[in-house]
Input
Amino acid sequence: MTRKIVFVIPPLVELLDLAGPVQVFREASLQGIDIDVGFYALEKQPVSAVGLPFGKISNYKKAELNAGDYVFIPGFYFEGLKRRPHVEKPFFKWLRNCSDQHVNICAVCNAAFILGSAGLLDHKECTTHWRSTDLLKSMFPQAQIVTNVLFVKSMNIYTSAGISSGIDMALSIIEEWKGPLIANNVSRALLIYYRRDARHSQSNIYLDYRNHLNPKIHELQDYMISHLNQHLTIEKMADLINSSVRNLSRIFKEASGITIHDYLTQLRVEKAVTLRNNPTYTITKIAAECGFRSARQLQRILRKYSQHEK
Output
């Protein structure tokens, strides 16, 4: 069965919100999945948020969709749709009709506001970029906003946090169709070796605790990220930056706001959670890749962090 994916380009579209999911489906097509990707727009000649023009693109009303097909709406610069009722209202109606016909509607980043305006988020779980969740809550109080997740599926409505999470959402759709092994093959072909599922937080341990100006601590943090499979003692790390153990413990906490042990553990947990999406990895291999002593230790720590998140 051919999977039809229609991308509807809003005015002032954000390029990565469009290109990321498109590339996922292109690679899936190259790997033999029967996919028909089409491009439509709200305007004849849309322009991206950075000023890149697209040329003439057919109007979204010309898209021929059936139950089970997909409509993707990438994120956009908000000014692109403001105060344009002659553009907004017909599009919202068209989206509602698509949803009523059991077409899947997928919003990347702030395109969730388009779905909310169309009434498609009422009484459904959804998400958007962390900077916009409060606004989404205030504008659409009947929507069930899920914060700090990468994407959410609620019946035939998909929403994602934006930017790279649009890629994660597209990969999850491939997995729904063909299973985790095929999704993993697509991911590997795109050089996305750390697939993230919907449970992943929008916060990122690789970026968190880096809002400081200590070059030695940044250097050490980079080293830790790159050597998680090794036995990293605090003595070894102190030697790396020519420091005493006591001094390293003090300056690391002062710079990052977290202890070096907790930071290292969070790095390892994050990598383990990501590697669990690879169907070729056993729990023992994951434990070894992340620097845990055994699979049992990894499982115990994962349970601990799972309970903490709840």
In short: The chain has a mean pLDDT of 87. The domain at 3-189 is CATH 3.40.50.880 (Rossmann fold). The longest strand covers residues 3-9. Residues 55 and 288 are 51 Å apart (CA to CA).
